[in-house]
């Protein structure tokens, strides 16, 4: 199964028309960005970059694909021959996976001929939109959990392959584990599980179910206590496992009220080390509402894997610069009524001071970049004596990922996840947000597209 | 790639514990259903059944899977040996794909030993939840379009494999085509495409872009007219293609206002046969708002493939009946505070008269089914003389899909889609809803779980 048909037809018909017009080899720059974030979101989290690189490497049209495309009768043999030989030979730069993004952040840049770059639109957007949707809400959940582990358990609520990618995205933003075995296998993510109501119901008595589970899994297991009566179930479980009982899971009812009662009951039974894990339609708001409540970990499903009400972050793949008849590169952008695009291949920097991010600098042209470098770098030099300015940071956000068709690095899937997780943790720390700030608010930092304004941000 | 690890860990640890307790071979019945529909939804549409049957057939643990599971150190060798030999040998019944569902409709029933049935929970729910989410909203969009073709174009907004399944679900509920090539290849769905802004921007002049497209694709192509100035673009396109120009696409701005202006302009240029296709964040409400507006077809993306605000319909997989120590089958159901389950293996019937559905009958026990058959069938017999009652219909909704591990039929993927589309069209017609009823409302028909009430519905 190649990734090449995970593509919209129009990319191929545009290719054909551009080839016939003789300009399919014009050098182009496409950028991936969002125009805005959902209301209340302070930042977004980029995820999927590692999967994009794999999809680009796999992007080949095999004989069966070509036969199918021929059968559509919309492409000529010349275009089909081009596709049969297709291999991406261009250059890709992008934000590191796990990095934060803001409106207009150019999280991925694809440089190449029109022919080679236009074909990648759909598969790149599918991956980046999906994975970033999960990562962006997952990061908020981890913050709301205030250090208590979050376990991804949402696989059953989404497409079976999306489930695996969702577990990967959740791990990147700090989830401690997943229930999904395929995600464990592919990405080395720790897997965890408890038990379902079906297990308890299979037995004639709840006591028999708990005995069987504790016998098989050991006292450290997590038992599900709300199939019949919670208090009765807890007594039974502690009676069987003793105070070594690992954890109890609550999956219904008023979680705050029940958790407090559960904690008191467990303590009264001497099971002071037994943990409480809460599940049941949690999101960042419900987790936030459980601050101070004796819940030790969270199992989070639907709202995580479906992007917390924002299942598609709105990433687009836009031509921003291309070679003209004069052989020079020109910025381009549509002027549509409510969706105009800022032309020009951009460079992006996270500007900060003393470990704190202050602005997202997205510079849309060589002239702006020159102004920025001249003004800001001079400014930084001049102020070097100031303690604030010596700690100033200017991090360039785009790193090379593929150069002339060759991947810069080939980390294993597990390495990709580990690196992205570290990147996310470091970048999030720069925002200085805490759980006390609550899930919603204004954009954490402004996006600045004017090089001359950059210095002002740090004043 | 097998489907067997698209599974939550707890299914395997429950299996282990049940095996050790000696009751893993108890006969069980699991049912898939939703507790409710989203507010405003009159009905849901089941999709994914065909994909579920493929996933069950592929559900094998290969050597690599077993090695991975062994590495987790939570399963014993006895359980691993069972998994290595696993092959589903039970029976599956279900609603036909494309059928409507209502709260408690048992859209899928899995009968088998606990061991063989419990493992299928995650992959079944992933598929049914995802595909039904798209089908349920897509059906509303097709109704709102009032016979004008809808094209699925959302692949770039969701996981790349979910994109293909979404196109399949959209085709089932009446979408005319998809932009996704993989969906075209796998399911025989017609593929369509227009052009992107990048294509126009690639050229030095819009006229050159249109000339290239019309030369390559013929005058019947669809040109995108909002890259610069819409009126100017339309003049240019008609100038090049003549009145044979196939269609123009609008992707921004006020679609109603622009469509009217476009229609007037096209007509004034003599292009009276040129169609207008609208895209840009459409959903059933925006399509409804374009009733009476001269738009000839709709390209629908994000809101379709993300389930129109309801990305996960909430299907659950619940143990409803199982063998007890006495060797007899017993209905079971949890009694959790806000999520109790109606026990008992159910049979379901769509009850109607004169081609109109009146109720969803979900009978939770043999006794209820007996009452229903006795009361209602007698009633139908008695009233046969009445013209209304001669047309009464009692359609049993669950059909056998797998019997003792063997699929009842093995339609091709394209046949699955065609059949499901026919089923959906027929079942939707029975509700008697029209676009004039608007997208939202009460549940179209009640769900009745008491056999004695069945006759009353038809009075």
Automatic annotation (TrEMBL), chains A, B:
Cell membrane found in the keyword field: no
GO molecular function: glycosyltransferase activity; nicotinate phosphoribosyltransferase activity
One annotated Gene Ontology cellular component of this protein: cytosol
Pathway info: Cofactor biosynthesis; NAD(+) biosynthesis; nicotinate D-ribonucleotide from nicotinate: step 1/1
PTM text: Transiently phosphorylated on a His residue during the reaction cycle. Phosphorylation strongly increases the affinity for substrates and increases the rate of nicotinate D-ribonucleotide production. Dephosphorylation regenerates the low-affinity form of the enzyme, leading to product release.
Pfam family, one: NAPRTase_N
UniProt keyword Glycosyltransferase present: yes
EC number, UniProt record: 6.3.4.21
Domain Nicotinate phosphoribosyltransferase N-terminal: 5-129
Broad enzyme group: ligase
Protein's job: Catalyzes the first step in the biosynthesis of NAD from nicotinic acid, the ATP-dependent synthesis of beta-nicotinate D-ribonucleotide from nicotinate and 5-phospho-D-ribose 1-phosphate.
Protein name: Nicotinate phosphoribosyltransferase
Taxonomic path: Bacteria, Bacillati, Actinomycetota, Actinomycetes, Micrococcales
